[in-house]
UniProtKB/TrEMBL annotation:
The lineage of its organism: Bacteria, Pseudomonadati, Pseudomonadota, Betaproteobacteria, Burkholderiales. Keywords: Carbohydrate metabolism, Glycosidase, Hydrolase, Polysaccharide degradation, Signal, Xylan degradation. It comes from the Bacteria. GO terms for biological process: xylan catabolic process. Pfam families: Glyco_hydro_43 (PF04616). The keyword Metal-binding does not apply. Belongs to the glycosyl hydrolase 43 family. Gene3D superfamilies: Glycosyl hydrolase domain, family 43 (2.115.10.20). The keyword Ribonucleoprotein does not apply. One of its GO terms (molecular function) is hydrolase activity, hydrolyzing O-glycosyl compounds. Residues 1-23 form the signal peptide. The record marks D163 as: Important for catalytic activity, responsible for pKa modulation of the active site Glu and correct orientation of both the proton donor and substrate. InterPro entries: Glyco_hydro_43, Glyco_hydro_beta-prop_sf, Glycosyl_Hydrlase_43_Enz. This is Family 43 glycosylhydrolase.
Length: 323
């Protein structure tokens, strides 16, 4: 989300978002926006009734424009990744009764398992909560009645346990990645609401704290492609999206390069969705009129891999719609 803190731009006030049926080359990105949103969490939920594609987001349109102080999250759905619908507020931070009164709704995450939909979110900057529902578009309740991760309670939780990202491997093991400045990972039990073992540091060889294109800032995300585990993350400021690879979701990882370069926005936050043989990277920029560091807009671009398993850098145009 930010250090102090995964579609296509229709720049008109409509709730239906039309997307080109066929994306162009991977070097273009398009915004999805009739309102300001950030921190994309895209999913394909085949068990969902109606629309199958879901995009959860931080609702920048409801903040003051002076800070990331929204208290609700936003949801968009699509039947085909061509036409998108603003599905409104799936839940608010007040679902978590243990949250501080000043807690904000930052970078969300979701997962499906056990016939349930799970919603993960940083709460107050020092805790991570998890909610559960029988459907993906609402009805969420606090799954634990206390935090899943708590800075004061849990060893190695880090200074700011935010930006949770959940990955379920092919063997069924679930992992949650999170954290600013130092990336963390912890296994989840099959119930998806309990930690399974200690919180560990994600080891990434080849990083450099003095190089903005080789440092970890925030926004961890994990996906697997052709047997390779890809750990993507934001460098923080100025907000490049970087990646590292490993043969295991626990690492150790090796730094590989840049996915998206600096987009003239203070930080960034990415997610990758693979569906039907295609890969897409979601991120945010300041594409809409009036946009900026506190009023961001989500965008998507095709993602391609090299023969050696490298990710080809996505050359999006910063600060403007990429048509």
């Amino acid at each position: 989300m930010h250090l102090t803190r995964r579609f296509f731009a229709v720049l008109v006030p409509t709730l239906s978002l039309a997307l080109a049926a066929q994306a162009a080359a991977p070097e273009t990105g398009r915004a999805i926006a009739s309102r300001f949103n950030a921190d994309p969490s895209p999913h394909f939920f085949p068990a969902a009734k109606g629309d199958k594609f879901y995009l959860y987001a931080t609702d920048d349109a409801s903040n003051t424009g002076k800070y990331w102080d929204s208290v609700t999250w936003r949801l968009y759905t699509s039947p085909d990744m061509k036409t998108w619908r603003d599905a409104g507020v799936p839940l608010a931070v007040t679902v978590f009764k243990w949250a501080r009164p000043d807690a904000k709704a930052w970078a969300p995450e979701a997962a499906y398992r056990n016939g349930k939909y799970y919603f993960y979110a940083p709460v107050g900057g020092d805790k991570i909560g998890v909610a559960v529902s029988d459907r993906p578009d609402g009805g969420f309740v606090d799954a634990r009645k206390d935090p899943l991760v708590d800075r004061e309670r849990d060893v190695n939780a880090g200074d700011e346990p935010i930006d949770p990202a959940v990955f379920i491997d092919k063997d069924g093991q679930a992992y949650m990645y999170f954290g600013t400045r130092v990336p963390k990972v912890v296994k989840l039990k099959p119930d998806m609401i309990s930690l399974d073992g200690p919180i560990r540091i994600v080891k990434i060889d080849g990083l450099s704290a003095s190089d903005t294109k080789k440092k970890y800032g925030e926004a961890p995300f994990m996906h697997e492609h052709n047997g390779v585990y890809y750990f993507t993350f934001s460098s923080g400021w100025p907000g490049q999206i970087l990646y590292a690879t490993a043969s295991s979701p626990m690492g150790p990882f090796t730094y590989r390069g840049v996915v998206i370069d600096y987009l003239k926005i203070s930080t960034n936050h990415q997610a990758i969705l693979e569906h039907d043989g295609k890969s897409w990277v979601f991120y945010h920029d300041a594409l809409l009129p009036g946009g900026g560091g506190y009023r961001r807009s989500i965008a998507i671009a095709p993602l391609e891999y090299g023969a050696d398993g490298s990710i080809r850098q996505v050359a999006v145009k910063p600060g403007q719609p990429n048509d």
